[in-house]
Amino acid sequence: MTDVRVAGVGLTRFGSHPDRTGRDLFATAALRAFEDAGVPREDVEELNYGNFMGALAEHQGHQAPLMAEAAGVSCPSTRYEEACASAGVAVREAVRTVRAGDADVALAGGMERMTNLPTDEVTEGLAIAADDLFEVRAGVTFPGAYALMATAYFDAYGGEREDLAHVAAKNHANAVPNEYAQYRKEVSVEEALDAPPVAEPLHLYDACPITDGASALVIVSEEYAAEHDVDAPVAVTGTGQGTDRMSLADRQHLARTPAADDAADAAYADAGVGPGDVDVAEVHDCFTIAEVLALESLGFFDPGEGISAARDGVTTADGDLPVNLSGGLKAKGHPVGATGGSQIAELTRLLRGDHPNSERVADAEVGVAHNAGGTVASAVVHVLEVAK
Amino acid sequence: MSAPASNGAYDEWLDALGDGEGYALVCPEGHGSLPPRRVCPECGSATLSEERLAGTGTVETYSVVHVAGPQFADDTPYVTAVADFGPVRITGVLRGVEPGSDAVAVGDRVAVGVEERATDGAPLVAFRPAGGE
């Protein structure tokens, strides 16, 4: 089995791109990834592309060949759909393909266009990541589902809205220097607490924004990098995925995410590291409570103990374990089908030392990316390490 | 205009719930699930029998939804809840309360039935407060 390197990363700015089609967004991310990698596009042997709601947002199915054209690659191309984990599973497939020796170079990432739809239609579009019969028809929205998990968490373990407001404030502060972030402005704990409710107990600043954007990664084998003199100092050393029952109501515990536990266990075992080895993490904070659940699934905290991590300064930029130095989904933005690739792009930059927040984790050697679909019925975890 | 698409065993279950005859599918191991099912999602058993649900359940979690999709546009604000009915939990909208964060508490008892969505009259799994026990 060959080792896998991230040769290059490319992102669009996350935010509102009213005049840009999905194909243009992905083309931009891919172009930047190739420039960053210094790898010729004709060497790409696989395209693994994530997208969730393109059929609704742009009336466009069968997106993979379109995105291969847009990126200027000529190779087998496949779209992956796993709700908000679509790009995470696409990257995982690229890693597995390169490891298996089926390709030396793969392009992986994703794209989502969302702001061209009215808010109520985006709300509806996101809701279909839940069970249509037993959840959507019963009034469950995407924020509403995480609100159900937040209420259950508070009831089981304690915690309060102010703990969650500290997560929002932390991630907004982290986004300020990030040129790709949608909201580069600080939000205070008080502002987060005073914002209007979306689905109580979650309010406006507990929720990620609606975002357009794309991500692309050039994934190569270690041998390819050596032969072609490609500078690729970050390795993907672990990948894991988990699945849970679709409906929240069918889960064993309403305030835990065992699909992410399974994904993390598999990724750590794959990499031969444990949670104590991790120096920096990008986690799926589509809502503030989701970051808390992610920290617990990744083994950084026991169940019920992650709620105060931001408030206590453990996960802040100057804490022992900085989490979401990119700004996270919360402030960087969440173009759902691009997010999993974006997390790995940000982590790669953080570990390489060319991220505006790299100085916060100057000695970091191990990073973890956690990407979740729906209410974590799907989860993907990757371990990245500075190659020795 | 064509008739709305059928969802088979789900529609039958919803009709039964509306008639006060809601049920869960239960396998010999005692795992509960909701239809349509060919096998138990927990253990894969294909031996599933219908078990009548109690008329009331216990609220396990809830949320007050202020922003919804077009199908619930005229229903907001509303309370969604997940309630435990023994072999299964059910998700629905809690009515008969003022939609606010103190409208309900985890542990409250609720009755389950089928009502209409305010927005378009579509059938909706609905809870009503059932009083203390």
UniProtKB/TrEMBL annotation, chain A:
<keyword id="KW-0414">Isoprene biosynthesis</keyword>
<feature type="domain" description="Thiolase C-terminal">
    <location>
        <begin position="240"/>
        <end position="385"/>
    </location>
</feature>
<dbReference type="Pfam" id="PF00108">
    <property type="entry name" value="Thiolase_N"/>
</dbReference>
<dbReference type="InterPro" id="IPR020616">
    <property type="entry name" value="Thiolase_N"/>
</dbReference>
<dbReference type="InterPro" id="IPR002155">
    <property type="entry name" value="Thiolase"/>
</dbReference>
<dbReference type="GO" id="GO:0008299">
    <property type="term" value="P:isoprenoid biosynthetic process"/>
</dbReference>
<dbReference type="InterPro" id="IPR055140">
    <property type="entry name" value="Thiolase_C_2"/>
</dbReference>
<dbReference type="Pfam" id="PF22691">
    <property type="entry name" value="Thiolase_C_1"/>
</dbReference>
<dbReference type="InterPro" id="IPR016039">
    <property type="entry name" value="Thiolase-like"/>
</dbReference>
<feature type="domain" description="Thiolase N-terminal">
    <location>
        <begin position="12"/>
        <end position="223"/>
    </location>
</feature>
<dbReference type="GO" id="GO:0016747">
    <property type="term" value="F:acyltransferase activity, transferring groups other than amino-acyl groups"/>
</dbReference>
<protein>
    <submittedName>
        <fullName>Thiolase</fullName>
    </submittedName>
</protein>
TrEMBL record, chain B:
<protein>
    <recommendedName>
        <fullName>ChsH2 C-terminal OB-fold domain-containing protein</fullName>
    </recommendedName>
</protein>
<dbReference type="InterPro" id="IPR052513">
    <property type="entry name" value="Thioester_dehydratase-like"/>
</dbReference>
<feature type="domain" description="ChsH2 C-terminal OB-fold">
    <location>
        <begin position="51"/>
        <end position="113"/>
    </location>
</feature>
<dbReference type="InterPro" id="IPR012340">
    <property type="entry name" value="NA-bd_OB-fold"/>
</dbReference>
<dbReference type="InterPro" id="IPR002878">
    <property type="entry name" value="ChsH2_C"/>
</dbReference>
<dbReference type="Pfam" id="PF01796">
    <property type="entry name" value="OB_ChsH2_C"/>
</dbReference>
